[in-house]
Amino acid sequence: MNHFNYRDNELYCEDVPLATIAREVGTPVYVYSRATLARHYLVFDQALSSLDHLICFSVKANSNLAVLRLLGNLGAGADIVSGGELYRVLRAGGDVRKIVFSGVGKTASEMREALRAGILIFNVESRDELVLLDRVAGEEGVRAPVAFRVNPDVDAETHPYISTGLKENKFGIPMAAAHEHYRFARTLSNIDIVGVDCHIGSQLTKTSPFADAIVRLNQLIQGLADDGFSIRYLDIGGGLGIPYGKEDEPEPPTPADYGQTVSAALAPLADLHLTVICEPGRVIAGNAGALVTRVLYRKSSEAKHFTVVDAAFNDLMRPALYGSFHPIRPVVHRDDRPVHVTDVVGPICESGDFLARDRELPEMESGELACVGAAGAYGFAMASNYNTRPRPAEVLVDGDRYAVVRRRETVEQLVDSESIPDFL
Ligand code: LLP
Question: Of 17, 72, 106, 345, which is most buried by a Cβ count within 10 Å?
């Protein structure tokens, strides 16, 4: 469910024509719907209502300050993976007591900043990291609240690059060594053990891997409780998939299915009164955003037809990086358009620069606008300046109004921090 729909053959975000935004802000431009973001958050929250829970939006999916503010206002916490993301959440007015810090390579200075801010939990991924965190917390004169990220060795059955819960992945500590890690942590004077954490992957289209992971963690948590640890939080990570609109794609579970699965799997731990933390990113932001781009040229080779647009893989990396499918629609719908098979490509000098390959699409003309859907998560957040391309503007729509929530970068900004040394 999202708020990008045709009205009188013109594509709108909520009550604003995408063509108006493209005319006034330029292209390529990311457009987010406030109503969709809020709806996704509230539906997810509702799906977990039978559990004591905290939703920590995964900032890496979409870190725009306006998006963070909007979700924070609805009660969301934040799952961060860097000092930069901590800074963003605080700048957006986020509640520091709802921040969890994930990631396999936190630096001492990132730990220090997070300790000073007073975040809820550090999700620690190795013994080395724990030892450093203990030292930094000691220097700061505080105790660090810790959950170990445990790798449950569950196959998330998703793209290998975003599958994280298998024992060959770099994430977490192995299940078999987990209890011993907790015992070691207990010997450190500046560490407070508060929880257990896992995250098995992203864009999951089944609920069973979530259930399998939780069932495996149950045993560990029960064992820790029996051993005198006071485990208050179970962080089950993010990962719920979304529909991208591909014909043969597996239909992802609904948030309600997910909520039921999680509560059923947690039932044996009811006596422990845990607070469940979830770190959803894509399911909140993915279908709440689109990338609007303009068709520059059309061309054909003996083998193919190409639609060259002004957005490229630096703006939206997912198709090039993961072979991901994003739905593409002309902003103006016409019944009389012939349908053809085309590659939608950007201006970058690499054959990997495509937004769609061999896609059946209504024929579009030069100068027309196209809307690349489901781009609200891992879209702008992964954009780069490759080819010295300023990153797109970002716009947030709210009913019949919109605001530019990130100005388009300028070429001057891109070179601003560079210098030519005297010896040249
Ligand atoms: N928690 C942790 C520890 C994570 O590593 C991630 C995503 C999430 C939560 C949020 O997962 P989500 O609910 O969004 O699936 N760039 C890739 C996705 C990478 C996901 C990395 N971790 C893509 O564009 O598909």
Answer: 345
What's the N-to-C CA distance of the chain in angstroms? 57
Task: Provide the CATH number for the domain around residue 378.
Answer: 2.40.37.10
Measured in Å, residue 58 CA sits from the centre of ligand 1 at 7
Helical packing angle, 65-73 and 83-91, nearest 10°: 60
Q: Based on the domain organization, do 246 and 372 belong to the same domain?
A: no
Largest CA distance in the chain: 73
- Predicted pLDDT of residue 232: 98
pLDDT, tens digit, 9 for 90 and up, residues 106-142: 999 999 999 999 999 999 999 999 999 999 999 999 9
Q: Is the CB of 79 under 6 A from ligand 1?
A: yes
Q: Is the pLDDT of residue 220 over 90?
A: yes
pLDDT digits (tens, 9 = 90+) for 361-371: 999 999 999 99
Position 374 in a domain: yes
Residue 151 Cβ contacting ligand 1 at under 6 Å: no
What is the 199 CA–ligand 1 centroid distance (Å)?
A: 9
Q: Does 318 contact ligand 1 (Cβ within 6 A)? A: yes
The reply to whether 371 belongs to the active site is no
Tens of pLDDT, residue by residue over 194-213, are: 999 999 999 999 999 999 99
Tokens of 80: 């961060």
CA 238 to ligand 1 centroid distance, Å: 7
Residue 20 in tokens:
């108006």
58 in contact with ligand 1, CB cutoff 6 A: yes
- Domain of 201 in residue numbering reads as 103-278
pLDDT tens by residue, 31-62? 999 999 999 999 999 999 999 999 999 999 99
Report whether residue 104 contacts ligand 1, using a CB cutoff of 6 Å.
no
Residue nearest to atom 5 of ligand 1 (CA): 199
Burial of 228: CB neighbours in 10 Å, binned 0-12, 13-18, 19+: exposed
- In total, how many domains does the chain have? 2
Under DSSP, the state recorded for 254 is P
